[in-house]
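Page 47, continued from p. 46.
Same chain as before, 68 aa.
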Amino acid sequence: MYKVLETNGKLTQKDLIRETSLPSRTVRYALNRLKSEKFLIEHYYFIDARQSLYGLNPQPSQEEVVPV
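Result:
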């Protein structure tokens, strides 16, 4: 999921389901998990207000970065 967003930019949940070929429940779980860990930002989708656009957080916080 992260890699698809990294490659394609902002996508809706329907787009993510289509791109990953994963079940909708799995995509919802992954989106919620990424959002709770601050890796994902949810944007308003002006074309269809019932949906949201999901994109990667350009600046993850320092506590989330694991040193190598």
